[in-house]
Amino acid sequence: MANILAARVETQAEAERIVTALRTAGIAPEDVTSFYLNPPGRHAEYPIGGDAHHDEGTKHSGKTAAAGAAAGGIAGAVLGTAVAAAADPGFAAAAGVAGAGVGAYAGSLAGGLSGTRAGNPGEATVDEPVEREAGVMVAVRVDSNENNVLQVLRMHGAGDVERTTGEWRDGAWIDFDPRRTSQQM
After folding, report:
1. Residue 80 sits in the same domain as residue 101
2. What is the pTM of this model?
3. How many percent of the chain have pLDDT more than 70?
4. For 44-90, what is each residue's pLDDT tens digit?
5. Beta strands 183-184 and 172-173: pairing type?
6. Phi and psi of 149, rounded to 5°?
7. Do 109 and 65 sit in the same domain of this protein?
8. Beta strand segments in the chain, E
9. Residue 121 within a domain
10. In this structure, are residues 22 and 140 in contact, taking their beta carbons and an 8 Å threshold?
11. Residue range(s) defining the domain that contains residue 88
12. How many domains does the chain have?
């Protein structure tokens, strides 16, 4: 396994400038690579599409959606029945059922949203990732030159710099997984 520093930039031109600066700083060409990182959900890692069933920040939203649906359904049924009973008692049952449906829908939406938060990288896993933003990744195999590489990356405006390990072969990071968490620097 190789030690790797990786950073994300917005454009290919930025990545090319960083790669040139790294080579000028004495980093061997076979120790530097760059590649496009698709937007979250576009890596086709999950069998039915997307990258994962859900991300780390939404792992509790199913429970809060169910609780919201139950509360909203009850409130909607009561409100629908009461309003219809006051206006036309013959429609009270139908209005109660309709109110329950509308209330359950609104409650599940509110509950699901309340259970969603920004993902915590420290709790992320491959199955519940905190996904990286799209852009161009510049990856560098490092050994004793890590501080030099880090300085070049930061000097040239690289964002989201991370340290990880991976398989490096023929000048490329071949086991990169966008769902795998790395140590942020």
Report:
1. yes
2. 0.61
3. 81
4. 666 666 666 666 677 778 889 999 999 999 999 999 898 888 888 88
5. unpaired
6. -65, -45
7. yes
8. 2-9, 32-37, 135-142, 159-166, 168-169, 172-173, 183-184
9. no
10. yes
11. 61-114
12. 2
